[in-house]
């Protein structure tokens, strides 16, 4: 899938920088604090602690993150990391310079805002499995690829932070709650889509995900999926989207596009062959969907991979 990046934020001019390493621009609102960090030279083992739960999102450049109890990992544009309330990030900037600076968003969220949002969800919109209530995970699924929905919410947070209107704090409260929901949906996707076998007997949606992955090339109906989830069609559709942030149909398409990409990387396949082997039954529809999801046609993608 293409990287999902919020709209670009202009870098500071050299004379506006107070430091070349993690120069910080702060926008403070009642509901959250938005920070834009940029680094214009290589640096290593730079500690950063913000005293709140923080959602960080890479905009440009490359970092290497060191978080307690986890192996170091590369951190790239289109990715986000959630950092716990009292956690210190230690960061390397192996490639940063004046021509290729790093830039990162960091949204600091008061713990009370998180608690209120999670309590409201568990009370008003409980998840399908009562033993897995809504919660924001700052350890297990804290590093992930952005979804389009999360990226859209982050863009609105940036716009609100720079707005001067009198209602911006009211809007900010709603938007930070939406961002928390999007974050938890993104983490739920990560848990189920990557570890579905492990949870297939304890989570009805994991069983659904497993069925979809095993029957991609066949006709998959919402009737069959709702039956697997032991729900009515309407309830299944609604709860699946609420918990994971996309509909069952969108998930099936996403999986078929991923399979098509895998097949297209084989130099011996044709686009028409890939279309049917990935579970699509109409080449024009496949071409249209593929371009919508990947930004290029299957033919162009294939040439990029094998050329």
In terms of quaternary structure, what is this? single chain
How helical, in percent, are the residues? 40-55%
Beta-strand residue percentage: 15-25%
Count of domain modules = 2
CATH T-level fold name of the largest domain: Jelly Rolls
Distance between the termini: 19 Å
**Which architecture of the largest domain does the CATH hierarchy give at level 2?**
Sandwich
**Largest beta-sheet characterization:** 6 strands, antiparallel
- Rg computed from alpha carbons, rounded to a whole number of angstroms: 21 Å
Structural class: alpha+beta
Provide the CATH top-level class of the largest domain.
Mainly Beta
What's the SSE pattern? EEEEEEEEEHEHHHHHHHHH
As residue ranges, the low-confidence spans are none
Largest sheet, order of strands side by side? 1-2-9-4-7-10
Mean pLDDT: 92
What is the count of DSSP helices, taking H or I runs of 4+ residues? 10
Categorize the overall geometry.
globular
Domain HTH araC/xylS-type: 206-304
Protein name: AraC family transcriptional regulator
Keywords: DNA-binding, Transcription, Transcription regulation
GO molecular function: DNA-binding transcription factor activity; sequence-specific DNA binding
């Amino acid at each position: 899938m293409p990287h999902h990046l919020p709209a670009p934020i202009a870098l500071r001019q050299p004379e506006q920088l107070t430091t070349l390493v993690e120069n910080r621009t702060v926008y403070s609102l009642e509901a959250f604090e938005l920070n834009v960090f940029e680094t214009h030279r290589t640096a290593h083992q730079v500690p950063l602690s913000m005293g709140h739960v923080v959602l960080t999102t890479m905009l440009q450049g490359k970092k290497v993150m060191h978080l307690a109890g986890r192996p170091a990992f590369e951190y790239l544009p289109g990715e986000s990391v959630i950092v716990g309330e009292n956690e210190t990030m230690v960061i390397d900037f192996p490639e940063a310079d004046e021509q290729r600076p790093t830039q990162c968003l960091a949204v600091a969220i008061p713990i009370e805002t998180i608690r209120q949002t999670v309590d409201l969800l568990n009370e008003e919109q409980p998840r399908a499995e009562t033993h897995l209530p809504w919660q924001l995970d700052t350890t297990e699924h804290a590093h992930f690829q952005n979804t389009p929905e999360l990226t859209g919410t982050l863009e609105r947070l940036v716009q609100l932070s720079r707005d001067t209107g009198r209602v911006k704090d009211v809007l900010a409260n709603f938007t930070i709650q939406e961002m928390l929901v999007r974050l938890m949906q993104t983490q739920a996707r990560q848990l189920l889509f990557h570890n579905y076998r492990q949870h297939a007997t304890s989570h009805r949606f994991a069983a659904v995900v497993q069925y979809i992955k095993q029957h991609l090339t066949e006709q998959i109906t919402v009737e069959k999926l709702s039956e697997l989830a032991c729900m009515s069609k309407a309830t299944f559709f609604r709860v699946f989207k609420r918990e994971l942030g996309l509909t069952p149909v969108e998930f099936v398409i996403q999986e078929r596009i991923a399979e098509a990409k895998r097949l297209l990387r084989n130099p011996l396949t044709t686009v028409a062959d890939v279309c049917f082997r990935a579970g699509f039954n109409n080449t024009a529809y496949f071409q249209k969907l593929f371009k919508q999801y990947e930004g290029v046609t299957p033919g162009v993608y294939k040439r990029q991979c094998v050329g």
